[in-house]
Design brief:
Blueprint lengths: L11 H11 L6 E2 L16 H13 L12 H12 L4 H4 L3 E6 L1 H16 L4 E6 L4 H8 L3 E6 L1 E2 L4 E2 L1 H8 L7 E5 L12 H14 L2 E6 L13 H6 L6 E6 L12 E6 L3 H18 L6 H10 L2 H31 L16 E3 L4 H11 L1 E2 L5 E3 L8 H12 L1
Helix pairs in contact: 2-11, 2-12, 3-11, 5-6, 5-10, 12-14, 13-14
Bound molecules: 4'-deoxy-4'-aminopyridoxal-5'-phosphate (PMP).
EC number: 2.6.1.-
Protein name: Aminotransferase
GO biological process, one term: amino acid metabolic process
Length: about 400
């Protein structure tokens, strides 16, 4: 029966991680997969998470199923974190949230919901985008279109190209935007540019889908929500996919959420019923642990303060490393200008290295970078930055 089944290619990014694990070179450097690392190269469990887990372990009285849409307290805390407790979207009750297994789960539930409820709509993805986006929406049976995002000449946002392409979107098409810390480029729109994007969405009657996987990794918790809050104008509908993999370090607990903002409470309730239908046939109901941790931390003043400190520390380290890398690379006499890396936000940067240079770094130096040249900045440390710069000098000269 399985004779005709061909071997599928390994996932481009996770496959690289496997190759890194098997590499015996003690000086190997992994800048591929998107996981935060501290100065020692460790992906830590946050203190606030450990404390919440202690409390949960003591208080747990059942392992019975969660509702299809997950924990109500978690869903409400997620909405407030994104919008702020007093935002009109919250006070008008026109938003509903379902807990999901990671941001990926939220994106897939969104994809299935769009395919069911908006037949014929295309999903517009930035070029480039996180490589799993096309996989997810294609699997959901949706048609894809792309809009330009990266301007190679300036290493910045191709804003005119982006707006120009989106002018061609049809009413009811879905526009996927990265809420902050764009993956893979690290380039985000300015507040003024977000305003123009929100205007265009409103004028052309598009459905914005925000992928919000890095809140707090760019400039701060509310600063990183500027785009999302700009788009959430009175009456505007939108979908938001949250992930707490990065900002809580809960990667393997699979904790995320999908929020749908409708025009009114009655419509939001109808959307919720459709999201539950999608979830029921996918995984029935979500796992509890990760969401219980996030809910506990977000709703307890002291744990929340600890979390915000820990998040600030992660953000400051990433920004410090960006500066260190730019200083070191310019000091080692490379012609190429890498100063743009300091302006980019979040864990990722587009280094400008091409596929050949990336391959050479891997085969000759055991430095692992994704083929597009995307670097996980958090993989750089005081201990490996000199070797990394040496490698980049070698392959670029
Ligand atoms: N969206 C983007 C842009 C991401 O980078 C990621 C994680 N790499 C996700 C969604 C999915 O996150 P999760 O691990 O929570 O599924």
């Amino acid at each position: 029966m399985f004779q005709h089944v061909e071997t599928a290619p390994p996932d481009a990014i996770l496959g690289l991680n496997e190759a890194f694990r098997n590499d015996p070179n003690p000086e190997k450097i992994n800048l591929s997969v998107g996981v935060y690392k501290d100065e020692q190269g460790v992906t830590p469990v946050l203190k606030c998470v450990k404390e919440a887990e202690k409390r949960l372990l003591e208080g747990e009285s059942t392992k019975s199923y969660l509702p299809i849409d997950g924990r109500a307290g978690y869903n409400s805390a997620v909405r407030k974190l994104m919008f702020g407790a007093d935002h009109e979207v919250i006070t008008s009750n026109r938003a509903v949230t379902v807990q999901s297994p990671g941001g990926t789960g939220a994106l897939r539930v969104a994809g299935d919901f769009i395919a069911d409820s908006f037949p014929g709509a295309s999903v517009w993805l930035s070029q480039p985008t996180w490589p799993n986006h096309p996989n997810i929406f294609t699997a959901a049976g949706l048609g894809l279109k792309t809009y330009p995002y990266f301007n190679k000449a300036t290493n910045g946002l191709d804003f005119e190209g982006m707006l120009g392409a989106l002018q061609g979107a049809a009413k009811g098409d879905v526009v996927l935007l990265h809420g902050c810390c764009h993956n893979p480029t690290g380039i985000d729109p300015t507040p003024q540019q977000w305003k123009a994007i929100a205007d265009l969405i409103q004028e052309k009657e598009l459905l914005p889908l925000l992928d919000f996987a890095y809140q707090g990794f760019g400039d701060g918790l509310s600063e990183d929500a500027i785009g999302l809050r700009e788009i959430a104008r009175p009456g505007q509908e939108m979908l938001i996919c949250s992930s707490f993999s990065k900002n809580f370090g809960l990667y393997n607990e699979r904790v995320g959420a999908l929020t749908a903002v409708a025009t009114c409470e009655a419509e939001a309730t109808a959307v919720l019923s459709q999201l539950k239908k999608v979830i029921r046939s996918n995984y029935s109901n979500p796992p509890t642990h990760g969401a219980a941790v996030v809910e506990t931390v977000l709703t307890d003043d002291s744990l929340r303060a600890t979390w915000e400190d820990e998040l600030t520390h992660m953000r400051d380290r990433i920004n410090g490393i960006r500066k260190l890398f730019v200083d070191k690379i310019s000091a080692c006499g490379i012609d190429q200008d890498f100063s743009f890396i300091q302006q980019q936000k979040g864990m990722f940067s587009f280094s400008g290295l091409n596929q050949m240079q990336v391959d050479q770094l891997r085969s000759e130096m055991s430095i692992y970078i994704v083929g597009s040249g995307r670097i996980n900045v958090a993989g750089i440390s005081e201990a490996n930055v000199d070797r990394l710069c040496e490698g980049i000098k070698k392959v670029t000269s």
